[in-house]
Predict the 3D structure of the following.
Amino acid sequence: MDLQTITFIVVGATFALYIGIAIWSRAASTGEFYAAGRGVHPVANGMATAADWMSAASFISMAGLIAFQGYDASLFLMGWTGGYVLLAMLLAPYLRKFGKYTVPEFIGERYYSQTARGVAVICLIVASLTYVIGQMKGIGVAFSRFLEVEFATGLFTGMVIVFFYAVLGGMKGITYTQIAQYCVLITAYTIPAIFISLQLTGNPLPQLGLFGTVEDGTPLLAKLDQVLVELGFAEYTARKTGLLNMLLYTFSLMIGTAGLPHVIIRFFTVPKVRDARASAGWALVFIGILYTTAPAVGAMSFYNLIKTVQPDLSGNPQASLPYEQRPQWFRNWETTGLLKFEDKNGDGRIQYRKGGDNELKVDRDIMVLANPEIARLPNWVIALVAAGGLAAALSTAAGLLLAISSAISHDILKGMIKPDITEKGELLAARIAMAGSILVAGYFGLNPPGFAAQVVALAFGLAASSIFPALMMGIFNKRMNSQGAVAGMLAGLGTTLIYIFWFKGWFFIPGTNMAPNTPDHWFLGISPEAFGAVGAMINFAVAFAVSKVTAPPPEHIQHLVEDIRVPRGAAGAVAH
Amino acid sequence: MSTQDRSPQAYWRANMRLVGIHLAVWAFVSYGMAILFRGAEPGVDIGFWFAQQGSMLVFIIQIFIYAWQMNRLDREFDVHED
């Protein structure tokens, strides 16, 4: 059977599974739609959270990022996992105790202010929409590459699938579908990794293979260091970015992860406060399986790539691969345009090195997708990788769409415009908001704004500099009042926005940046992506200063804070 | 816990002490071992391991230990659910 047929079968089977689950787990109440009736087992919730969290970026792009950045990319690994420690200890149990449906709802009630709730809604929608655009694009790309259909056809298919299980099932449908999607994506990620680790280092565990030795007995990492230096690059294991930037970038990603609303609302679905703590641990176990495999995939696929074009692993240009002898996978990826060869010196050989005489351009995103082909694995493995990439994109898109639609139906419609809406009316509004969000996301997926990739920094910056501090102070500082929180959010958000726009252009319009986006122009060498950490500190400082000189919050708010700090009483679920 | 104080304030102080210890470990493995103190040791690159695997393993273990400690604390102070 040819690759395309197998891919159709594998992807079709997984889609049938998702829709089947959606029909079985239809949401009947707002409680089921927003929080899956708070009946999700902590291990199941951990698995769903992992699928929710790991997007097309984690599945497809991360290993490639590690391959080309080496040690520096560790900041993504630590940043995107370290946030779960903060969630488990600082946010999840208390927000679960609070027992409402959305993040803006907590901020609005804790700071007894519709303004605060409004600011939180805006942050949530900007952060989530940014993310969703990326997922939609990922779905379209995966479809068009593996099923050989038009980009738009692939995108519409993805939209219809998400529509089915997200609109029908709400959080309940999404949760159970995400569990299935996690199983698909983790199988698809680890199987090729195991084969490649076995081929290269003789160790079936990629995590150990990364520190294993290659054929000639030298450690894999030492070999990579040595080859890269010969080709003119910096060592794989060396730190290339500034020390302060590395620290702050990691910190920004950690607090950004803990502050992203679509992750936080997952912890509203478990039955008890203690389940919220354990659930964060389970989520990290399931995320960790992929995240500890990724560095091995990155290093090994990079090693394989270099070995293909420079078989003797030296810097000698005469020993590199003649273009006519390039392998089949090389030809396949050349047709996509993501792998490009230009014979600059006219010797008919492929030279990969740093600087102007480099003849090979490799798109980082092909590393995971091309992996099974490079290692000559059977077609069903390649088909599985396609299904895994789609599962990662679909699960994240659904979680984000739920966060957006609940902000619209619950925070804006019920919370601000029409508080007396019936449950039935709100459920209908939530479904309409969800359908609308899918259309908007689909539109942007089809016509991606040029700045889509850059806005990811904005999403993390928003979560790190506004949402995370506001939530944390709401729980840990009883004295924090409405004025302090709003001033803090605006100050943190404002400085972070200005810093990002300063180097990336006002509202990302090309050419309007005030200074070139290079390390020697950055303030203290801090990149725009890493500035969320500074924004958060400004938020904390301003909030404390303002709350000191204004009136303390009313009595009942102080009691509310005391109440969310103890677990007892949470089982009574939602009083509305 | 030998003290007689079973007030919500004492529960919160005990919780904060646990959180403080865990966050110190959390920062030590990631910002410390993986970034700041890396590179001193010849031969074995422990810092690289912490940066790409070790810190994540520590994070996972930490959350489960904290969850277990808090369950015990909840019962001790009689604030547990059900």
Remarks:
- The longest strand of chain A covers residues 339-341.
- The domain at 3-309+372-567 of chain A is CATH 1.20.1730.10 (Sodium/glucose cotransporter).
- The interface with chain B takes residues 66, 71, 74, 77-78, 81-82, 84-85, 88-90, 93, 207, 210-211, 221, 237, 239, 243, 246-247, 250-251, 272-274, 277-278, 280-281, 284-285, 288, 291-292, 295, 562, 565-571 of chain A (CB under 8 Å).
